Amino acid sequence: MAYWLMKSEPGEWSWEDQLKENPAEWDGVRNHQASNNMKAMKIGDLAFFYHSGKDRQIVGVMKIVKEYYPDHTDASGRFGMVDVEAVKPLNTPVSITEIKARPEFSEFLLVRNSRLSVMPVEPDHWKTICEMGGIDP
């Protein structure tokens, strides 16, 4: 199993939206590196749901339920999407400020490349963030 982090502006698609329309398509990704990360996702992989924008915090855990396929919102036909299903919220959201304050996250992609919307998460980082959020890894 692999671990991921997927970002969304709460005004565009929030954790609450995900809970209401679950499972849902994760569409609209137009960055090639983020798209390649989605191509690597397998059914059953887990992903953190990250509220970007002013919130900038991890709020929940999702599961990949459908692997990469064409994104119907992309007129160019170059990009795809995956389907995700909410698994559980974090008991305590984990902010980017909290993550940056801990030395073990110095190599975490969220810290090094904060603009990337879909990224892998190392197992040790996954475990630590789950603990910080008050849930079992």
Nutshell version of this structure?
The chain is an alpha+beta fold and 137 residues long.
Write the layout of secondary structure elements.
Elements: E1 3-8, H1 15-20, E2 24-26, H2 32-39, E3 46-51, E4 57-70, E5 80-95, H3 96-100, H4 109-112, E6 118-121, H5 123-132
Parallel strand pairs: 1-3
Antiparallel strand pairs: 1-6, 2-5, 3-4, 4-5
Question: Mind telling me which CATH architecture this is?
Answer: Roll
β-strand percent reads 35-45%
End-to-end C-alpha gap: 13 Å
Number of domains: 1
* Main CATH class: Alpha Beta
Written description of the protein model:
This protein is of the alpha+beta class and 137 residues long. It has a single domain, classed as ph1033 like domains (ph1033 like fold, Roll). 24% of the residues lie in helices and 36% in strands. A 6-stranded mixed β-sheet has the order 2-5-4-3-1-6. It is globular, with a radius of gyration of 14 Å.
Record keyword descriptors for this entry.
137 residues; alpha+beta; ph1033 like fold; 6-stranded mixed sheet; 5 helices; globular
